Amino acid sequence: MSPFATLLLRDVKLAARSGGSAALALSFFALVATLVPLGVGADLHLLARVAGGILWVAAVLAALLSLDRLFQGDFEDGSLDVIALSPLSLESVALAKIAAHWLSTGLPLTLLSPLLAVLFNLPLSPGLILFVSLLIGTPAVSAVGAIGASLTLSLKRGGLILPLIILPLLSPAVIFGAGAVALALDGLSSAHALGLLAAFAFAAVLLSPFAAAAGVRLNLGG
Amino acid sequence: MQFLFRYANPHEFMRLSGAVLPFTVIGTAVCLAVGLYLGFSVPPDYQQGTTVTFLFIHVPADVVAELAYGAIAVCSLLSLVWRHPLADIAARAAAPLGAVFTALGLITGSLWGKPMWGTYWVWDARLTSFLLLLFLYFGYMALWNAVEDETRAGRAAAILALVGVVNIPIIKFSVDWWNTLHQGESIISGKIAPIYLWPLLIMMLGYVLLFASLWMVRIRTVILERRARSLMQQGR
User: Fold this and answer.
1) Three-class SS string for B163-195?
2) Would you call B175 an interface residue with chain A, using a CB distance cutoff of 8 Å?
3) Which residues contact A154 (CB under 8 A, 6 or more apart)?
4) DSSP states along B41-64
5) Tally of CA atoms within 13 A in the half-sphere of A70 that contains its CB
6) More confident residue, A171 or B49
7) What is the pLDDT averaged over residues A117-125?
8) ipTM
9) Which of A19, A49, A172, B89 has the smallest C-beta neighbourhood within 10 Å, fewest atoms?
10) Phi-psi region of B44 (alpha: psi -120 to 50; beta: other; left: phi over 0)
């Protein structure tokens, strides 16, 4: 197995087993979706209107929950130093970690979203668009999040500062993702919004490993 | 580049900025006084009435808010590529100024919005993207303060600033896109009359000089602080 695949598999296993950050993110996502009707009322009409936005925001927040551990755990127990010594470049390490984070949070969130869409009374085709938009957009959340995680990895309380750094940078993903659902709800084509979302995600996944690797490097070396 | 490095050494910077500072301070005072006088004496706009005066204090604040981020980005690039300590100091010193000008732009914008739009806040594309810019400033400053080692903090903040520079046009585009999705264009665009243009330009110059003066003072303060600290350590 290639070093990249080994690292990817290791991180997915860690997320799935110890501490279960993947399960935590999923529960958080479902809980936020449950609290919203309690807050805004059970009007099914209103819920369908806000479903796209709420579920997108909830998905981003849920993905953020486990982001601060992306590099920090490995940094604290020293395995990040060992990984940095491996033949894998730090950029590839960052990409593997982004992929593992997406596989353990973004993808499960996406798979859960159709169920929550039903709870929010979202009709079939906007619900499908929500699913597709999360599928396309959540890699961007993991990728941009990895930049924040790398910059804050040596901080004791990095988890507090991470959302402040990352959320403004992620606003385009929320806008295009929730926008695609809103367009579908109005019976319009969401192809444009999904295209923009895909472009954003593609650029984020392509460029973030470089910034994240720079962040890791400065915290490791000095 | 060679030219830049000559003046990027703290000693040279202190000398040069000390010579320039009185002029920028006087320039700021003159521009703001003249600009405000002209701004308050312009004839009322046929649509906006006397509230058009807001134009002269609001628009320059927005311009400087963006300018400050640009300044941070350039300093960050200098710091990352050439590892120049002064660039770190300069970037850090510009951030609170940029945040204050962004907040000023938001506050004057919303006060202007009350008579114009009938409400203090509308989710207009420009207001929204400036609100996001304010949060970018907050995140940048928080990162600076959170990392204890100053060199590391500087490099982490520089990476964040450059990521922000790549992302800001995308954020701006997405907010514009979002705005047309949710509501129609709410700003009446038209050509600006010369009688409004002159006070605006003078005020803009005043704001830019104000930013430059405050920025230099802040950088000088940090340099002096460090000198004082190293002198204290020597004396011990």
Assistant:
1) HHHHHHHHHHHHHHHHHHHHCCCCCCCCCCCHH
2) yes
3) A75, A219, B147, B152
4) HSPPBTTTBGGGGHHHHHHHHHHH
5) 40
6) A171
7) 91
8) 0.88
9) A19
10) beta
User: Is there a contact between A164 and B139 if contact means CB atoms under 8 Å apart?
Assistant: yes
**Does the CB of A171 have a partner CB in chain B at under 8 Å?**
yes
d(CA A68, CA A206): 21
Give yes or no for residue B164 having a pLDDT over 80.
yes
Q: What is the pTM of this model?
A: 0.89
- Measured CA to CA, the distance from residue A44 to residue A60 in angstroms comes to 24
Is the minimum CB–CB distance between A151 and chain B shorter than 8 Å?
Answer: yes
Which residues in A lie closer than 8 A to residue B167 (C-beta atoms)? 169, 172
Across B97-218, where does the E strand assignment appear? none
Number of helices and strands in chain A (H, E): 10, 0
Burial grade of A148 (CB within 10 A; 0-12, 13-18, 19 or more): buried
Q: Is A155 on the interface with B (CB under 8 A)?
A: yes
Closest CA to B35 of B199, B212, B210, B222: B199
Tokens of B222: 């940090």
What backbone torsions phi and psi does residue A50 show, to the nearest 5 degrees? -90, -5
Q: Crossing angle of helices A90-101/A124-151, nearest 10°?
A: 140
Q: Measured between CA atoms, how close is B181 to chain A, in angstroms? A: 8
> Which of B35, B13, B58 has its CA nearest to residue B205?
B35
Tell whether A137 lies on the interface with B, counting CB pairs under 8 A: no
Average pLDDT, chain B: 85
Dihedrals φ, ψ of B45, to 5°? -70, 150
CB B208 within 8 A of CB B67: yes
Read off the pLDDT of residues B18-37 as tens digits, 9 standing for 90 and up: 889 999 999 999 999 998 88
pLDDT band at B187 (very low <50, low <70, confident <90, very high): very low
Using CB atoms, pick whichever of B138, B156, B178 lies closest to residue A151.
B156
Total residue length of chain B: 236
- Residue B157 φ/ψ, nearest 5 degrees: -65, -35
From chain A residues 173-202, the ones with a CB under 8 A of any chain B CB are: 175-176, 179, 182-183, 196, 200
Whether the CB of A40 is below 8 Å from some CB of chain B: the reply is no
